[in-house]
Amino acid sequence: QVQLVESGGGLVQPGGSLKLSCVASGFTFGIYTMSWYREVPGKEREFVASISGTGGTTNYAESVKGRFTISRNNVKNTVYLQMNSLRPEDTAVYYCKLQSRGIWGQGTQVTVSS
User: Fold this and answer.
1) Nearest one of 28, 22, 14, 18 to 87, comparing CA atoms
2) DSSP 8-class letter at 43
3) Is residue 110 within 8 Å of 19, Cβ to Cβ?
4) What is d(CA 42, CA 77) in angstroms, rounded to the nearest whole number?
5) d(C-alpha 20, C-alpha 48), whole Å
6) Which one, 5, 18, 53, 81, has the greatest CB density within 10 A?
């Protein structure tokens, strides 16, 4: 069955960097758009970034443009989120999503704090 497993979260100081990974299985990874979302308790889950199957098209939320980069490796069935210049307001649980089927991973916690 389809499975998405995120990793790479943790505690980082403001201004620091983290790279999240999402390993996919159970479907033909290279033909599907993949996305990253994040959720803070008490708020709706929000879109962060997406990438087309070939990697040729990316989209970002305004709040992360210029700081975050989404990429993918279709040989490793993995999508990444490189997060730089992190801010306390980036603190959230980050989820990977197989966009067209609405399937989510379990999430990984990112905490930005001094």
Assistant:
1) 14
2) S
3) no
4) 32
5) 13
6) 81
Instruction: List pLDDT tens digits, range 26-67.
Output: 999 999 999 999 999 999 999 999 999 999 999 999 999 999
- The β-bridge partners of 34 are 51, 98
> For residues 23 and 94, what is the distance between their CA atoms, to the nearest angstrom?
14
Number of H helices, E strands in the chain: 0, 11
Cα distances (angstroms) measured from residue 94 to each of 8, 56, 67, 91 = 10, 23, 16, 9
Q: Which two tokens stand for residue 34?
A: 């993949």
Distance CA 82, CA 68 (A): 5
How many residues can be counted in the chain?
114
Q: Tell me the C-alpha distance between 65 and 74, whole Å.
A: 23
9-13, 14-18, 28-32: which range is least confident on average? 28-32
Which residue type does 33 have? T
